[in-house]
Amino acid sequence: MPRQVLIIEDNQDIANLVSMHLLDSGFRVESALDGRTGLDKARNKKFDLILLDLMLPQLDGLQICRELRSQNILTPILMLTAKSTELDRVLGLEIGADDYLTKPFSIQELLARVNAIFRRAQYYQLASPTTESTIIEFSDFELNADTRTVLHGGTEIELTAKEFDLFWYFACHPGRVFTRSQLLDQVWGYGHDGYEHTVNSHINRLRAKIEHDPANPEFILTVWGVGYKFTSNATAATTIQ
């Protein structure tokens, strides 16, 4: 079945051009020219990807992204922005965008980013310890990939979309050491060179939520001079199908 893409872009020429090339690539496409209409479409229909302009009438892209993630709508978001400042890019990633593309961009680069997001989504489906596994248990934690929830001692921990992605990825690879660049590539996607501090900030927030003593973490460990690893003690984790 063709993948469904929603374009939220107020420039009609850009929306038409992107739509035409996505249709030629085999996708189904819907468009919205303002933030309010785009948010309503994203809420009421299941899409496989949202191309989201940053500057929009009525609601801007950051507001839309924040609203969707707060409602646990986890559709991948590729943010399109005419702003090139580091703050704008990092803020979009921090609140749950999966990737960004700065205008002007080539259609070839856009399609490469779109396909990379879909490859990464497929990778997460295969990254579980077994392909049918959706729950990982270790210590007092339970991670559920279907509901994207984390329980600790039976109590749910509120995580952002990217915090969950990061936690799940670590839990799937106990004992393995990852550099910040590798985590950027696997969790955020390619094209984020130079944003290693995004990994640091997410790990710090994740530790604050899951560690008894974030200053002396038990689960997400720093490997000095290299990066991070998830405790190898989690190899005893039980995977439930």
Task: Report what the structure shows.
Helices cover 41% and strands 22% of the residues. With 241 residues, the protein is α/β, with parallel strands linked by helices. Mean pLDDT is 83; it is low at 128-132 and 235-241.
Q: What's the main sheet like? A: 5 strands, parallel
Seen as an oligomer or otherwise, the chain set is: single chain
Q: Report the helical percentage.
A: 40-55%
CATH homology group of the largest domain: Response regulator
> Might you state the CATH topology name of the largest domain?
Rossmann fold
Average predicted local confidence, pLDDT: 83
The CATH C-level name of the largest domain is Alpha Beta
What class, by secondary structure content? alpha/beta
Q: How many separate helices?
A: 8
* N- and C-termini, Cα separation: 26 Å
The low-pLDDT segments are: 128-132, 235-241
Strand-and-helix sequence, N→C? EHEHEHEHEHEEEEHEHHEEE
- Please give the number of β-strands: 13
**CATH level-two architecture of the largest domain:** 3-Layer(aba) Sandwich
Question: SSE layout and pairings?
Answer:
Blueprint: E1 4-8, H1 12-24, E2 28-32, H2 35-44, E3 49-53, H3 61-70, E4 77-81, H4 86-94, E5 99-102, H5 107-126, E6 135-138, E7 141-144, E8 149-152, E9 155-157, H6 161-172, E10 177-179, H7 180-188, H8 196-210, E11 220-223, E12 227-230, E13 238-240
Parallel strand pairs: 1-2, 1-3, 3-4, 4-5
Antiparallel strand pairs: 6-7, 6-13, 7-8, 8-9, 10-12, 11-12
Summarize the structure.
The protein has 241 residues and is an alpha/beta fold.
Features:
single chain; alpha/beta; 241 residues; five-stranded antiparallel sheet; five-stranded parallel sheet; 8 helices; Rossmann fold; elongated
